[in-house]
Amino acid sequence: MPKPLHDEVPPVQSGQSLYEKMLQNCLRGEFRVVNAGLPKSQKRLSDLLNEKYPYVICNDGSTHFFKKSELEYLASMIDAEEQKALLLPMLIVLGADQAESTIPILSGCEGKVEEKIVSKALNMPVTYDETRIRIYKPQLALLRRKLKTTTVYVFSPKIVA
Amino acid sequence: MPELIKVRPTKIELVKLKRRLSLAQRVQKIVKDRLSILTMEFLQTARETAEAKRKLIDEFSELYKALSVAAGYHGYIALEKELIATEADLKITAGSRNVAGVRIPSFELMDDTKPMRGYNLVDTSSWLDRTAQLSEESLRAIVELAELQRNFELLAMEINRIKRITNALEYIVIPGLQVTINYLNMKFEERDREEKARLKRVKVLVA
To answer: How far is CA A36 from CA A21, A59, B151, in A?
Structure first.
């Protein structure tokens, strides 16, 4: 699970001017806001399919709701074993230049489940290595259109480094 | 024209200003990334909203045609009598999700509810079945449109807010800091030159 981004921001020091404090608070606030929707923990698709109201708890304590129709769409693409391996929501880590994004592989099936889902949703093959699946911006829009509630954006600390 | 920030021309102030500038640039980067993602989501939602509206209008026109035929076939009084029996509560699952920092609602009509099928099958015809089926489809489209419309509004509001922050950073905060840093650098260079000239003058006087 990625670390919340606001941990990366240095704490406001007492010797700093009001202006600096304001800027740093703004940065801290932005980080907190962008990653507020990150789930505290992910759930398996097989478990979510059995829940009446499928959801996960986010970092800010709110809930992230999954649409049943979307879960059923995902379930139709993979078999029962793969449903047990797939962790939801899938994280989309945004790249530094926004041209490409990656989906980290967390299922423990060497990325076969995620690759299968992404390539079927996009209707085109995708490249993946051991740790991530690489997708490009036009593909990202397509993927988000089909998997609205089962994917979540992650703003990586590398973006602002 | 960016304004100079009023600071004392000291090296410590210059270091502070440089630190502020790097912080402001970091904020700008994250805000711009967020804006780009939100714009992509907004455009997609706008397209989907337009599509959903068109679909809903088409479904409504189909539904009214089917209802007119059913009313003509059964008669208004008989149809009204049957339709009273179809009244039922709708079950909608409502939740929320987060898109790049914007909390947006998510609605879904529960599948196990068949709100339009409570009428007597003996006294009715397939015209009413067709009307009921189209009504169910319209309901689903209404729920979908409600979600999209609200998402559209919330994303638009957030984009407006972020644009203001980006513009403030891009056109006021960062240029102001850069101008002040340049001004201080020039001031220090000028002071160095003055110091050199003074030393030269002292050297001439001493010699």
So the answer is: 22, 6, 18
